Amino acid sequence: MSKQFDVVVIGAGPGGYIAAIRAAQLGMNVACIDEWTNNKGGPAPGGTCTNVGCIPSKALLQSSEHFDHANHHFAEHGIAVTGMSMDIGKMVARKDAVVKQNNEGILYLFKKNKVTFFHGRGSFVKAAEQGYEIKVEGATPETLVGKHIIVATGSSARGLANAPFDEENILSNDGALRLGAVPKKLGLIGSGVIGLEMGSVWRRLGADVTILEGMPTFMAAVDEQIAKEAHKAFTKQGLKIELGAKVGEIKNTKKGVSVAWTNAKGEAQTLDVDKLIVSIGRVPNTTGLNAPAVGLQLDERGAVVVDADCRTSLPGVWAVGDVVRGPMLAHKAEEEGVAVAERIAGQHGHVNFNTIPWVIYTSPEIAWVGQTEQQLKASGHAYKAGTFPFLANGRARALGDTTGMVKFLADANTDEILGVHIVGPQASELIAEAVVAMEFRASSEDIARICHAHPSLSEATKEAALAVDKRTLNF
Ligand code: FAD
Ligand code: NAI
How far is CA 154 from CA 257, 289, 322, 382, in A? Predict the structure, then answer.
């Protein structure tokens, strides 16, 4: 006997669980299916983000940053530390506890909002009279029928054909987040977001880290000036970043991993490491969905094809988050989930793709929203730029962290803010002001005229806005 729902969500990552909650808030009868299983065989909703992504990586970044501060910065404050040690097992256990809290929080939210949760794999069976029939394969097999289906099955790490993940020596984000000891030598392939965050964690804890990046430029998607500043800071910290690297044969032995590669000058090199993290992007999860059973259209990467409103090729079937086009970010997935639930309810859900912020949680942090200077140049958009260094910010000096800057890009004629780029302390928090400003289509002068607390890092944002009009006050 099948169970009937208004909405069946497949996947309980940030896209799926938020869509389920919003649909339930709007009065619909909602089921959410997720297959992620914890080490006790129980459900672990929250997806990549909660289990092996955003949350655990930030927990380890925090622990390793404390260690780094104690090692390198406490002395400036007159704090002497002797006999310091690092218990990696404890650090990883703390991270696991943070993950568990989040898993449990989502199960609580499902109960609170009367979302029916099913633990297992969801897949299409056929179109039904009242929507679509979905099979749940798990400890308790079920058949559900949903008038509307939201596919939110996320993504998985992309591997290299010649170096499959064993999570022992060759690691995806999963293995990278649960190493039992600090590797003496750590290699990473790909200096994207994961490469930089994970490379930073293990470098701070004492690993000798080398990143092999295929592209000739560092962080091509980031504003060039900001990327240059970040590259300088990371190199100074001891991260070895090899750009324009061509990775060849990879040998995985009991002793470690040996990577043959060619540098930008075409010279043959070998990198011998204890562990290798492969962080070269992610692929959408659609293999378990049985998409052909209903004729759901996928693209050549396996992503579900959707329009701007997350409608798929099938009426009543929607898809959100990493499994569709666009940036693979938790907050993008959440916004799409909310918008889809609202559209199903007949409302006008909306996602502004121009104001989705990006944050890289390294030290210095990197955050941005809107267009980069190279994008504006390429499109021929006339713009004005203003920058302000944290070196000239009182709060940054007091914190002892003056790396980086805030950069504004504004329309040359209207002064509307087109992009804000930050590299420096607390960039992840500072970017929120820029997102609000851009959402309200503010001008740089609007920010320049707003009173910002003193002393605060946010004064650098105000000053960068003033810099667009060449009238900084403190620089
Ligand atoms: P997912 O979170 O991948 O969730 C999909 C869920 O669906 C999973 O639980 C999966 O088990 C389940 N599923 C798949 N197929 C089925 C099926 N057939 N049946 C049942 N269940 C199924 N983003 C940020 O914004 N900020 C960050 O700081 C950040 N850090 C990251 C760090 C790392 C190391 C990684 C890997 C990613 C990070 N991301 C971050 C990206 C972020 O995790 C993803 O963008 C986000 O999780 C996407 O959400 P989603 O709901 O689309 O998919
Ligand atoms: P990424 O797309 O950020 O970076 C991949 C890097 O690998 C690129 O620089 C690319 O040029 C390089 N590369 C690709 N193939 C290569 C090869 N064969 N040899 C050498 N270099 C190669 O992907 P990443 O780091 O795996 O992260 C996946 C996604 O997860 C991110 O794009 C992001 O959406 C999300 N994420 C977000 C975080 C955040 O918001 N703070 C943190 C971590 C991940």
Answer: 29, 12, 5, 38
Looking at residue 130, what is its pLDDT?
A: 87
Q: What pLDDT does 1 receive?
A: 79
Please give, one letter per residue, the 3-state secondary structure of 217-262. Answer: CCCCCCCHHHHHHHHHHHHHHCCEEECCCEEEEEEEECCEEEEEEE
Q: What is the dihedral of CA 88, 89, 91, 95, to 10 degrees?
A: 140
Report yes or no on 252 lying in a domain: yes
Model pLDDT, residue 143: 97
CA distance 151 to 133: 13
| Domain boundaries, position 62 | 3-156+283-351
Ligand 1 site residues (CB inside 6 A) read 10-16, 33-36, 47-49, 53-54, 57, 121-123, 152-155, 173, 194, 285, 288-289, 321-323, 328-331, 333
Judge if 184 and 266 occupy the same domain. yes
Q: Residue 60 maps to which CATH number?
A: 3.50.50.60
Q: Say what the pTM is.
A: 0.98
User: Which residue in this structure is represented by tokens 């999860």?
Assistant: 285
Residue whose CA is closest, atom 4 of ligand 2?
A: 192
> pLDDT tens across 176-194, in order?
999 999 999 999 999 999 9
CB under 6 Å to ligand 2: residues? Answer: 189-195, 197, 212-215, 245, 247, 279-282, 327-329, 359-361
Split into its structural domains, the chain has a count of 3
d(CA 45, CA 378): 42
Active site (annotated) includes residue 231:
no
> Counting ligands in written order, which one lies closest to the CA of residue 365?
2
Averages of pLDDT over runs of 10 residues in the chain (475 residues) are 95 98 98 97 98 98 97 95 95 98 98 98 96 96 98 98 97 97 98 98 98 97 98 97 98 96 98 98 98 98 98 98 98 98 97 97 98 98 98 97 98 98 98 98 98 98 98 97
Q: Which ligand is nearest to the CA of 330?
A: 1
Same domain? 254 vs 174: yes
